[in-house]
Every structure is written in structure tokens, then in C-alpha cells.
Backbone:
């Protein structure tokens, strides 16, 4: 372990809240090891991931097996996926069983809760750089085989910097608002796990009442968003009861329009909340 090695020190602390169930750091690591044992060292693993316990376990498992993960959206269509398989010849695929895929050259290695791990029956020898951890799509279009190579050093430096700048503590509680295969979404996951904080796994939009119910019931004190997130917030109305536990929120991924920023800042100032504009 390199990147996630400190998670074992948090043991019984709650790492994740998923479908109203709590998952400790210890359980998260133990389940990650179940997956990693089925992955041969120095493999390329396609992870079709979502904001759920299985997906986060699979990312950690990929590190445990000294392998490289390509992060893909769980909604990727079959044609795009087949193009990527042809271009990269992955050794393994990990995805939700509900996603029906016709994959003749793959066989089941593990059924893990709602997900399955498949192994490529064809042996394609690859040279895996020991410093490389993640391949991440350069845009929302994962149909293109172009990916950014992210090393352990990249992740460690960036994650530690954000934890320090935002002063993320063990008692912080974040809620997911973005896909994990999106660099900003993954950053929120990584920074909070590395700090020993709690993450509420959510798949609802801020448009939906379920999102706000989760945020309030779990006493989340921060969340992240892209500019469009904040445009939605100003349209649906900034309600004090929704933000009673929030101490800050972050925005990245693009420029926030001045009029939107001013509305958010005005509301935040009245409620002692910080808006932190990050990269992008």
C-alpha cells in the first residue's frame, strides 16, 4: 500500500454511509482486500464506477494489487466500452451486475455485492509503470482512448495539499455530488478518506429532495460542486434549513458566473458559510 496505507489507523471509525448503513474503515479495507486477492499483480483494471461502497472498495483494491485502474462512468455505453477494450486490452473489468454486457473474452472471477469482477481470458503482456496508479479520461467523452496518467506521487501531493488548505478533519462529513470517475469527484473521496472523515454516498441530484434529506439527517458539513450545481441552487432557492450544518462548500471545474457567485456569497455570509473556489 502507498496511497491508502494510513486508512488502517482509523479502524472502527465510520468511513462511508451507504444506503443508510455505516461502513467502518476496517470493513472498507477488509472488503477491498477480498477484491484485490482476485486481481493479479501489475494488471490493468477497468472500473465502471458509481457513488457506492463497491466502487470505492475497487479503487483501493486496485492499489492493493499494485495495478492500474482506468476510471469509467458506470453509464458508459457498450460501443464506447468495446472501443476502449480494443485499444487497451484490460486484464479485468469491474462493474454493476445490472449492466448487461456481452463480453465473450471475459470470465467471472468474483461476485462482490452488486458488482462483478471479470478476467480477460486472453493474455496480453503489458509493461505497467510502478509509479502509475490511475488512468483518467481527459473529458466527459470516454469514447476517446485518451487518458491522463496519474501517479501515486501526483495523488499524494494533490490530496495532502487540499486536506491542508481546507483543513479537513476527522469529524468532517462530506456528501457526494459528482461522479467518482470525474477527477474532482475522486478528489473529494480521497481527501476525506485520507483525513479519516466520513463520506455520505449519494446518487441524487441537488434538484431532488432525497439529497437534502440525506445531507441534513447525516449532518454533512461540506459538499463540492461544479458551476452548474450552484446555478441549480440559486434556482431552487437557498433555504437556511438545508444548510444548518454546512460550514463550507467548494466549486471547481469552470468559472462561476459573477451573478451566481454574488447570490451564493450573500446567502453564505448571512449563515457563516465559506465558499471556496478551487482549480478549473
Residues:
Amino acid at each position: 500500500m502507498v496511497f491508502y496505507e494510513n486508512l488502517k489507523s482509523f479502524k472502527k471509525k465510520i468511513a462511508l454511509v451507504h444506503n443508510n448503513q455505516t461502513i467502518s474503515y476496517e470493513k472498507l479495507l477488509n472488503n477491498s482486500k477480498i477484491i484485490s486477492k482476485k486481481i493479479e499483480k501489475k494488471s490493468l483494471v477497468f472500473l465502471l464506477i458509481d457513488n457506492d461502497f463497491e466502487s470505492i472498495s475497487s479503487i483501493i483494491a486496485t492499489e492493493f494489487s499494485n495495478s492500474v485502474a482506468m476510471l469509467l462512468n458506470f453509464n458508459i455505453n457498450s460501443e464506447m466500452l468495446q472501443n476502449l477494450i480494443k485499444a487497451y486490452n484490460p486484464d479485468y473489468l469491474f462493474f454493476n451486475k445490472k449492466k448487461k454486457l456481452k463480453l465473450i473474452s471475459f470470465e467471472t472471477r468474483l461476485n462482490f455485492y452488486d458488482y462483478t469482477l471479470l478476467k480477460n481470458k486472453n493474455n496480453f503482456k503489458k509493461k505497467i509503470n510502478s509509479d502509475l496508479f490511475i488512468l483518467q479520461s481527459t473529458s466527459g467523452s470516454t469514447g476517446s482512448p485518451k487518458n491522463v496518467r496519474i501517479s501515486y506521487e501526483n495523488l499524494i501531493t494533490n490530496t495532502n495539499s487540499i486536506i491542508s488548505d481546507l483543513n479537513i478533519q476527522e469529524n468532517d462529513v462530506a456528501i457526494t455530488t459528482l461522479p467518482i470517475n470525474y477527477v474532482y469527484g475522486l478528489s473529494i473521496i480521497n481527501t476525506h478518506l485520507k483525513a479519516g472523515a466520513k463520506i455520505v454516498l449519494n446518487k441524487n441530484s441537488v434538484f431532488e429532495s432525497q439529497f437534502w434529506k440525506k445531507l441534513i439527517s447525516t449532518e454533512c458539513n461540506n459538499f463540492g460542486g461544479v458551476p452548474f450545481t450552484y446555478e441549480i441552487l440559486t434556482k431552487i432557492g437557498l433555504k437556511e434549513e438545508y444548510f444548518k450544518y454546512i460550514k463550507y462548500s467548494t466549486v471547481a471545474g469552470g468559472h462561476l458566473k459573477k451573478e451566481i457567485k454574488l447570490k451564493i456569497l450573500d446567502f453564505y455570509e448571512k449563515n457563516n458559510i465559506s465558499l471556496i473556489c478551487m482549480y478549473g
About this structure: The mean pLDDT is 94. The first strand starts at residue 14 and ends at 18.
